């Protein structure tokens, strides 16, 4: 039977295919990925686009979490200082309530409580990276100002707005409590009770001083309840952080399943392709010079 | 009755015939690597005998014909496979350029979407922060910029395909002209029962080249071949070729017409068909998806902006320029330059992030086209991947079957050096033998002439 005497196109096609295959394996080995362009595996490539987006979103959630930790911890430690100040005010009130004090002693105590009042206002005006933490969503200017014309002794310039921040897919967390609720809440007004104590001490009325001291103590209890919000938010952020880190690991595993190359398999495939190529080359080298003319003289 | 002179005549004819056969062999060897060459075979036949006194004398040999060995059916199959292979190859080449636009999952429109929404998410932790607001603007600009460049790159791939289309038409016209010229000669030779030989090879070769450009139907008629496009538009009829014309269409793309009729959409197969397929179907579909995504996404973002308040307490202005229709993606721009205009607030206070939820919702809510922005984008990417993958598979498959057909044709028409060498030796020996006959007859003639000179008169 006659066969095609011109076999070079066939062998060249084989060689090109082997070389292309080798290049694919080498690319897979060097990138560590079996899917390097959409046509390698369209479905996996599209899924990888989504996966990359989720990884990047998770990074952002982690970033949000750590930003919020800063804010919430600053707020929490400010409130912790307020607690210390209020305890001082209570002991000053108890001291003022004892009957053997002179008027000037009471005035001195009143002044000390006034200075505590000033400290608390300062703490209520705590800011983090330029934003006031206890002004509701009005964060651009200090929310509290001393104002003796007000019954509580302060003017609240903030609002009652709250912000929520997404810290994981579908999970948002409230990140602030308005200052009016913390410091002038219905369950016990920090500002109001301090002002009441100052007034009582100035008046020297022992009964009023006692009542005012109880008010401060009530306000302290109420403040501590409000503080729980920050404490639990911080612990939610902590557990969220470890969840997100776990998500990242899962997403990376998923990415690897989608587009990662199995190095051992690819390396074996590459060496097989190389063997096949050298076999083809050897065959080509042997066949080409062989024809009848070589045997004629 | 046989005679020395007739022997001489027979030997001389044999020398002629063998020389002719040696020519054929030599021509075969010379053309062993010529594309489209079909091996030729010298066909010997006995010369008409003469009869004398009831004895029939053979009159030697004549070289009756030099025949080209080929297979018309295979040739037509190869032409068909050629147009499929060239079409797939042209599509694959173009699509490979297209898919590089989408080849990096950590860059481009998809990654920009995520980065943009991440920057808004970051802003929610500190809604009054100018650096965070600036970052949102920068991410929006990146996104718009990548929309612009992706569409522009698609446009430029489309217009380079358009240039190829024009070139393909020029090549087709040159080829049909050449084929028409050959067609007349080949047709005449076939009519006379002659083998068109190398002219036939040339014509076949030109038709194969034409098939690489477009799908060609071949119809054998009395006056040679009639060639038409796949849908019957004549290209060559007998000695006449019909040139295709190019005109610039309304969208800046070249339209192809024949005798005043637009046949652009009916052309299939070959490089031209492949180029047209990508230019007129694949890329326009991608462009319109990209345009829809750009206009629907920017409209959703602008609506979300409008539902909130900027840093100054004013109602949110559009973040992106209003853009729709063809070119929406390349016209997409960020409409604001002042970072304080990003409407993060839901109540007009600077510290509120209440509207961020609305802005972020665009990321996961379905656009009017049915999917959320990233899904819309990634399905465009996977479409591109699928098209490229299919084209690649088709190139591989059609190349394999083209090779197989060429092998079959080669087994019929290819020049085998061993065969030619064997023939060469055969004809050489035959020539030598015939030459020996000539010299033998010559010696005999000499003897006859010497018959007289050897006899001298008796003294």
Key features of this structure:
heterodimer, A: mainly alpha, two-stranded antiparallel ribbon, 67% helix, B: alpha+beta, three-stranded antiparallel beta sheet
Give your account of this protein's structure.
The complex is a heterodimer of chains A (297) and B (459). Chain A is mostly helical and 297 residues long. Helix content of chain A is 67%, strand content 8%. Chain A has helices spanning 8-31, 42-97, 103-124, 179-183, 190-203, 206-259, 263-287, and strands at 127-128, 131-132, 144-146, 154-156, 164-168, 171-174, 184-185, 188-189. The longest helix of chain A is centred in the first third of the chain and has 56 residues, at 42-97. Chain A is rod-shaped and about 140 Å long. Chain B has 459 residues and is of the alpha+beta class. Chain B has 2 domains: 4-69 and 415-449, no CATH class; 77-404, no CATH class. Helices cover 61% and strands 11% of the residues of chain B. Chain B has 10 helices and 11 strands. In chain B, the strands form 4 sheets. In chain B, strands 5-6-7-8 form a 4-stranded antiparallel beta sheet. In chain B, β7 (234-237) and β8 form a beta hairpin. The mean pLDDT of chain B is 92. Classes of the chains: A mainly alpha (297), B alpha+beta (459).
Write the layout of secondary structure elements.
The complex is a heterodimer of chains A (297) and B (459).
Chain A: H1 8-31, H2 42-97, H3 103-124, E1 127-128, E2 131-132, E3 144-146, E4 154-156, E5 164-168, E6 171-174, H4 179-183, E7 184-185, E8 188-189, H5 190-203, H6 206-259, H7 263-287
Antiparallel strand pairs in A: 1-2, 3-4, 5-6, 7-8
Helix pairs in contact in A: 1-7, 2-3, 2-5, 2-6, 3-5, 5-6
Chain B: H1 4-30, E1 40-46, E2 50-52, E3 55-57, E4 61-68, H2 72-100, H3 108-124, H4 130-191, H5 197-213, E5 216-221, E6 224-229, E7 234-237, E8 240-241, E9 245-248, E10 254-258, E11 261-262, H6 270-306, H7 328-331, H8 356-364, H9 373-413, H10 417-453
Antiparallel strand pairs in B: 1-4, 2-3, 5-6, 6-7, 7-8, 9-10, 10-11
């Amino acid at each position: 039977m006659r066969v095609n005497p011109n076999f070079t196109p066939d062998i060249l096609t084989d060689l090109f295919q082997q070389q292309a295959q080798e290049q694919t394996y080498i690319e897979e080995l060097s990138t560590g990925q079996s899917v390097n362009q959409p046509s390698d595996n369209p479905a996996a490539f599209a899924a990888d686009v989504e996966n990359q987006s989720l990884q990047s979103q998770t990074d952002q959630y982690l970033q949000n979490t750590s930003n919020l930790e800063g804010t919430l911890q600053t707020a929490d430690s400010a409130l912790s200082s307020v607690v210390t100040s209020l305890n001082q005010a209570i002991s000053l009130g108890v001291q003022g309530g004892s009957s053997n004090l002179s008027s000037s002693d009471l005035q001195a105590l009143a002044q000390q409580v006034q200075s505590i009042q000033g400290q608390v206002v300062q703490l209520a005006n705590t800011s983090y990276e330029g934003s006031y933490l206890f002004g509701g969503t009005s964060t651009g200017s200090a929310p509290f100002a001393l104002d003796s014309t007000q019954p509580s002794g302060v003017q609240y310039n903030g609002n009652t707005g709250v912000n929520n921040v997404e810290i994981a897919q579908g999970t948002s967390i409230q990140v602030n409590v308005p200052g009016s609720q913390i410091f002038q809440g219905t369950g016990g007004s920090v500002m109001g009770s301090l002002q009441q104590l100052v007034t009582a001490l100035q008046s020297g009325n022992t009964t009023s001083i006692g009542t005012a001291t109880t008010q401060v103590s009530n306000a302290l209890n109420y403040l501590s309840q409000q503080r729980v919000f920050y404490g639990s938010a911080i612990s939610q952020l902590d557990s969220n952080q470890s969840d997100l880190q776990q998500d990242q690991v899962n997403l990376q595993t998923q990415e690897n399943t989608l587009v990662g190359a199995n190095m051992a398999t690819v390396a074996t495939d590459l060496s097989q392709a190389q063997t096949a190529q050298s076999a083809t080359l050897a065959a080509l080298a042997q066949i080409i010079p062989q024809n009848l003319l070589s045997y004629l003289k | 009755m046989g005679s020395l002179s007739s022997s001489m005549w027979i030997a001389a004819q044999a020398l002629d015939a063998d020389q002719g056969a040696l020519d054929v062999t030599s021509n075969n060897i010379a053309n062993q690597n010529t594309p489209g060459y079909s091996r030729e075979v010298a066909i010997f036949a006995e010369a008409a005998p003469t009869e004398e006194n009831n004895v029939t004398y053979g009159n030697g040999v004549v070289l009756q014909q030099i025949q080209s060995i080929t297979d018309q059916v295979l040739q037509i199959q190869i032409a068909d496979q050629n147009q499929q292979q060239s079409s797939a190859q042209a599509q694959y080449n173009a699509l490979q350029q297209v898919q590089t636009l989408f080849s990096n999952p950590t860059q481009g429109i998809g990654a920009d979407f995520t980065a943009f929404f991440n920057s808004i998410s970051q802003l929610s932790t500190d809604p009054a922060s100018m650096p965070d607001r600036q970052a949102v603007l920068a991410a929006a600009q990146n996104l718009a910029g990548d929309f612009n460049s992706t569409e522009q790159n698609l446009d430029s791939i489309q217009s380079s395909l358009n240039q190829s289309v024009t070139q393909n038409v020029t090549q087709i016209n040159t080829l049909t002209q050449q084929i028409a010229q050959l067609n007349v000669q080949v047709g005449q030779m076939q009519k006379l029962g002659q083998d068109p030989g190398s002219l036939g090879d040339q014509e076949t070769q030109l038709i194969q080249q034409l098939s690489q450009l477009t799908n060609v139907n071949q119809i054998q008629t009395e006056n040679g071949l009639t060639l038409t496009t796949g849908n019957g538009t004549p290209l060559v009829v007998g000695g006449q070729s019909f040139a295709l014309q190019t005109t610039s269409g309304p969208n800046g793309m070249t339209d192809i017409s024949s005798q005043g009729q637009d046949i652009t959409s009916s052309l299939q197969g070959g490089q031209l068909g492949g180029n047209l397929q990508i230019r007129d179907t694949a890329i326009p579909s991608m462009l319109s998806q990209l345009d829809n995504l750009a206009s629907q996404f920017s409209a959703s973002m602008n609506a979300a902006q409008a539902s909130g308040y900027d840093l100054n307490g004013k109602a949110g202005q559009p973040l992106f320029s209003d853009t729709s229709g063809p070119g929406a993606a390349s016209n997409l721009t960020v409409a604001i330059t002042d970072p304080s205009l990003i409407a993060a607030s839901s109540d007009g206070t600077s510290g509120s992030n209440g509207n961020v939820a609305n802005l972020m919702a665009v990321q996961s809510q379905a656009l009017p086209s049915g999917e959320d922005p990233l899904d819309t984008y990634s399905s465009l990417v996977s479409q591109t991947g699928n098209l490229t993958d299919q084209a690649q598979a088709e190139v591989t498959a059609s190349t394999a079957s083209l090779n197989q057909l060429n092998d079959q044709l080669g087994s019929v028409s290819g020049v085998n050096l061993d065969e030619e060498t064997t023939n060469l030796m055969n004809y050489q020996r035959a020539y030598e033998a015939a030459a020996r006959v000539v010299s033998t007859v010559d010696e005999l003639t000499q003897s006859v002439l010497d018959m007289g000179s050897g006899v001298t008169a008796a003294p």
